[in-house]
Amino acid sequence: MNIVELLTSTTSRLPDQPVIHFKRALLTYKELQDKVYNIAAGLKDQGVTKGANVALMMTNRPEYIITYFAILANGGTVVPINPTFKEQEVTYIVNDSEVELLIIEDTAKPVIENAMDQFKTVKTIINYGDHVDERYLSWHQLDTSASISEIVPLHESDVAQIIYTSGTTGNPKGAMITHGNLNWMAITAAVYNQLVPSDRVLCVLPLFHAYAKLQGFLAPIAHGCAIYLEERFHPVETLKAIAEHEITIFLGVPTMYAFFAQVPHLVEQLDFSKLRTAGSGGASLPSELLHKTNESFGVSISEGYGLTESTVMLMTTHRSLPKKVNSVGMPLPGIDLRLVDPEGNEVANHEVGEILFRGPNMMKGYYKKPDETANTIRDGWLYTGDLAYRDEEGYHFIVDRKKDIIIRGGFNIYPREIEELLYQHPAVVECSVIGRPDPVFGEKTVAYVVSKDTELIEDDVRDYCKAKLAEYKVPDYIIFIEEIPKSGTGKILKTALKDLDKNALPK
């Protein structure tokens, strides 16, 4: 099966149903499918066939969804790239995933032009925008009267997308998500949210994000919903959009709800009576903020737990179940889940263990990284590296992120990536990056630095990071320190560093 069948199946039933609202533009299901088939024909002419890896580096717009489906319709594999990434980040993903074709838009051109000489496998770069020269093919040149006759038939084990994540080694790895993974998860998410064709889903999450793809358009399209697509999140404009468009489903991250809480006067003025489901993912929603949001919107916020390797979702607080503060709920039906100690023995209720799972949402593996795959998937179980406990009723509670991931505003930040960059600075002797709790972003990034240059200042380090990292990865705080806490064997003790950071904060 090909995941594009979600679209074609709905189109056959609801051809004239609106599917994408964007600014003043509107596409019906039939119009969307026609566009997908047109662009697929153009991509096929550029060599996008079964097995071709195609990087997609665009912001939120209908053309993202069109291009995503068009790549898959030809049997290609999508490699999403954050459009705010810098040269070093883009180059790594493009080369590691052996991308043959790269699709961007005007805003990404400065980065791509600095990086393109380092690309090893890219044959063609397609630009969606007004500024195209001989180095690029225009996206609009793909949109001709030609059309593919059918989508390429695939097996459920064929890879649909390679999404880059990071593990205990800190090196980015491409998680291979199959058509079967996506199909099962899209249908499951749609059923859990009880989606119907009359639903209106507001998507402000960035579409390169796995959560946005699943909940923002794959699950809604599977059930014939209308998608109201926004370019970016803005607290006031997003709240107004929920009310104006009579949105029934809103999907966000904790940071968005924290910003909503800062404009209570607007929340009180607007009508959210049509909203029946609001979801939060990417990080835990603080209990106080959860309570305020539930009261403001008049709905119960659904939370959950998952990771890229689980095709986003693993557990959720289904609205049919009583809520428990700080719980991420229970495993989705069809998923086996265990909590084990370091020796692999299952732990008792209320004891902390590492989360292991298996099921139809489990990734195929890491792209061309057999050792990392074998270390993560053992005896059919995927070891998440995250710690949790369960109570006697089966509710699960996340205790810690074993991998030291920092979750800032719903985005994963991997400390080692920043640390390795800082170590490239000639004045940096030693460094360690940790997360600091923050009421708005969930966490902010703190870089502790030992410098051999007494004249090095915070702005110097921040400017250095800004030139090489996406903005959300740049440390929020840079603190110079004489010595970083270490164990007897010389290993940096992040727990001790976090305690030091906590004690340094104003009481």
UniProtKB/TrEMBL annotation:
It comes from the Bacteria. GO terms for molecular function: long-chain fatty acid-CoA ligase activity. Gene3D superfamilies: 3.30.300.30, N-terminal domain of ligase-like. InterPro entries: AMP-bd_C, AMP-bd_C_sf, AMP-binding_CS, AMP-dep_synth/lig_dom, ANL_N_sf, ATP-dep_AMP-bd_enzyme. Keywords: Ligase. Its EC number is 6.2.1.3. Signal peptide: none annotated. CDD domains: FC-FACS_FadD_like. Residues 417-491 form the AMP-binding enzyme C-terminal domain. It holds the Pfam family AMP-binding_C. Belongs to the ATP-dependent AMP-binding enzyme family. PANTHER family: LONG-CHAIN-FATTY-ACID--COA LIGASE (PTHR43767), NONRIBOSOMAL PEPTIDE SYNTHASE PES1 (EUROFUNG)-RELATED (PTHR43767:SF1). This is Long-chain-fatty-acid--CoA ligase. The gene is fadD_3.
